[in-house]
């Protein structure tokens, strides 16, 4: 990235600044994170532009957007900083019992609501001083290909907007470490005493009013593709943005919905919601942790991934 002459005047802090502006897309917010003044951030960006021969970030009314060159540099810079952080942290090995570090985990709510209770229990015993932030991850609206649907997770991981992603997809490029924490399938959730429970034929199932969890309000999902394969169809009466909200609606109506089995087992009872096996097979899938392999050199992150695996084992 830099020749030998350039390295003599390079400043590692400029790479940290670059990484922060890439994540925040705003000079003011970047300045707050770095405890600098906005003018100092602007001055640093000016030095980076001179060093790298590219504008890097272009001003907009809402902040800044990266140029193509800045986007190309994001992953190499993240890798360089991960290595540097690993070297520095090795001077004082990560100790979960004493750490006050904050970890950012990205996951859809159907997964985070399942792994979070055992994760918090384990963390409370092993690392009482750490903090956890959960980012809501969503597949791209209307994208049928899983690889493309979860592309934003790759982008956010490589931009270090989160430490680890936990998603129902594992076919990622080889530069990512992928580990299964638990397996999942779908059941049909409904209020206790629902008439479908006594006669759950495919025809009766399709005749019911259906609720679909969709952040974008799209009534079509994977269930409809499965039904089409059996020559069946359904009527979607309502979409809601998350699974927990959906439980409260199912409790008070005759609507039914396809829900992750483990989610229902953990959370449905207090809403008065039950579940039955799906009248047509809806398939099963794995919930995986996804982390850039280079980031796993961070002992703290490696510990977090192991904690997530053990959280999954606690669900067995």
Task: Write up this protein.
The chain has 316 residues and is of the alpha/beta class. The chain has three domains: 4-89, Orthogonal Bundle (Arc Repressor Mutant, subunit A), CATH 1.10.10; 102-181 and 286-313, D-Maltodextrin-Binding Protein, domain 2 (3-Layer(aba) Sandwich), CATH 3.40.190.10; 184-284, D-Maltodextrin-Binding Protein, domain 2 (3-Layer(aba) Sandwich), CATH 3.40.190. Helix content is 44%, strand content 22%. It has 13 helices and eleven strands. It has helices at residues 4-7, 12-24, 27-34, 38-52, 68-89, 109-126, 146-149, 151-158, 202-207, 222-229, 243-252, 261-267, 299-313; strands at residues 57-60, 63-66, 102-107, 131-136, 164-167, 176-191, 209-213, 235-240, 257-260, 273-277, 284-292. Strands 3, 4, 5, 6, 9, 10 and 11 form a seven-stranded mixed beta sheet that branches. α2 (12-24) crosses α4 (38-52), α3 (27-34) crosses α4 (38-52) and α6 (109-126) crosses α12. The longest helix has 22 residues, at 68-89. It starts with a helix and ends with a helix. Residues 1-5 have low confidence and may be disordered.
Break the fold down into its secondary structure elements and pairings.
Elements: H1 4-7, H2 12-24, H3 27-34, H4 38-52, E1 57-60, E2 63-66, H5 68-89, E3 102-107, H6 109-126, E4 131-136, H7 146-149, H8 151-158, E5 164-167, E6 176-191, H9 202-207, E7 209-213, H10 222-229, E8 235-240, H11 243-252, E9 257-260, H12 261-267, E10 273-277, E11 284-292, H13 299-313
Parallel strand pairs: 3-4, 3-5, 7-8
Antiparallel strand pairs: 1-2, 5-11, 6-9, 6-10, 6-11
Helix pairs in contact: 2-3, 2-4, 2-5, 3-4, 6-12, 6-13
